[in-house]
Amino acid sequence: MLKKIICFGLGLLPMAIFAQHSFTIRGYGGSYKNGDSIFLSFKQGGKHITDSTVVKNNIFRFTGKFNTISKGYVCRNDNPRTAMLLKDAFDIYIEKGNIILQSADTLNNSVVSGTPLNNDQAKLIAALKPVMTESRNIKDIEEFTPEELKDTALVRQTTERSAALYREGILVRLKFINRHLNSYVSLANLAPIAKTSAFLPQVEEVFFRLPSRLRSLPEGNDILRRINEGHKTFIGMKARDFTQPDVNGRPVNLADFRGKYLLVDFWASWCSPCRAENPNLIDAYNKYRDKNFTILSISIDSRKDRQKWINAINTDKLPWAQVSDLQEKNQAAALYGITTIPANILLDPDGKIIAKDVKGKELQDTLARLFQ
Questions:
Q1: Cα(67)–Cα(291) distance, rounded to whole angstroms?
Q2: Angle at alpha carbon of residue 369, lines to 368 and 372, rounded to 5°
Q3: Model confidence pLDDT, tens digit, residues 65-117
Q4: Out of 45-49, 214-218, 277-281, which region has the weakest mean confidence (pLDDT)?
Q5: Is the dihedral of CA 124, 117, 9, 197 positive or negative?
Q6: Cα–Cα distance, 239 to 260 (Å, whole number)
Q7: Could you give the CA distance from residue 256 to residue 227 in angstroms, rounded to a whole number?
Q8: If you average pLDDT over every residue of the chain, what do you get?
């Protein structure tokens, strides 16, 4: 779960241009060791700014200049230029003033204060603490032993709880955003939520309540683009037709499945959450394939990853139709406004969309109601 949390939290988002200002970051950690390396990363004018220092007497310090307020992070001992995973990191907002990070142990558990945006960040972190604590205590499926992976009940329980906590975290963020509409912290947190299509209605509702000075920023423009993409598909509309080749190059048309309940699944071989959802899809397929239900999976793998796509199908033992145009931007995904994966739409026998982005237990519950 650590990797997912870091990925969610460490987006580097620039803000409006101001005159050059100074900032100071002071960090105090009871478990920091003399010589520990501390790295700072943030974005300015489209460029990533990095700096580093070392801990001395449980303290580290950065000073610097900036032109645009931005979200960045500090991390300990893992150089962000080379590390695949930042095990000990903390988000901060680069703004004028003295930013204070205090922790009894790791950077992960820091309490931030000292400037307006970082004070807002501290409020959000406090609200998220129960969810984040439980998330960190859940073992990532990617770290499961072969024996644990054979325990289908454990895999399903872990996947479902992880997904539930992810949703809970989004709901906490949305509640914060609704209470802090004038804060750049709200915009910075709304941007990654907009990548989850299931929450686009909530994103759209709150986005247009933000002040224009925030909506007009680059990340605001990106949120608006995702909202507009989300309008390409809605429950009740007739699904747009498309044709893509299967693994053997044979064309498969969406209309070929007319007359069946069809789950159109968007995924990729390199997408860990997609691969984690595959056992749930297999379970659903096996339960309802004799009740006029099937699945069509569309991979957004590119041509260079064709063999990885085929290997993933075989490794995960996916028995239903698999297609992909293997383009850098999959045309079917573009047609349906898919901006993040895993994603899916559920069609009735007439080709009408009756559900969107139902995964895990929600998919099982939806199908159970449908075929009851």
A1: 61
A2: 75
A3: 999 889 999 999 998 888 888 889 999 999 999 999 999 999 989 999 999 99
A4: 45-49
A5: positive
A6: 13
A7: 30
A8: 90
The share of the chain scoring above pLDDT 70, in percent, equals 95
CB burial string 334-362: b at 16+ within 10 A, e below: eebbbbbbbbbbbbbeebebebbbbbbeb
pLDDT at residue 239 above 90? yes
Q: What is the 3-state secondary structure (H, E, C) of 49-82?
A: EEEEEECECCEEEEEEEEEEEEEEEEEECCCCCC
Looking at residue 19, its pLDDT comes to 63
Residue 119: closest CA among 103, 102, 99: 99
* pTM score, whole prediction: 0.75
Relative orientation angle of helices 272-288 and 360-370, to the nearest 10 degrees? 20
Identity of the amino acid at 117: L
CA–CA distance, 359 with 343 (Å, rounded to integer):
8
Residue 180 CB partners (closer than 8 Å, separation 6+): 120, 123, 186
The burial of 222, by beta-carbon neighbours within 10 Å (0-12 exposed, 13-18 middle, 19 or more buried), is given as middle
Nearest 5°: the CA angle 301, 78, 84 is: 10
Closest CA to 261 of 185, 191, 195, 358: 358
d(CA 114, CA 346): 48
The helix (H) or strand (E) run that includes residue 257 is none
Q: How many CB atoms lie within 10 A of CB 153?
A: 7
Q: Is residue 333 a contact partner of residue 266, using CB atoms and an 8 Å limit?
A: yes
Please name the residue ranges forming H helices in 255-340: 272-288, 306-316, 331-335
Residue 183, CA distances (Å) to 57, 88, 212 in order? 35, 26, 12
Encoding tokens for residue 110?
């820091």
25 vs 372, which has greater pLDDT?
Answer: 25
For β-strands 37-44 and 251-253, DSSP reports them as: unpaired
Beta-bridged to residue 356, according to DSSP, are: 345
Largest CA distance in the chain: 70
CB contact at 8 A, 155 and 149: yes
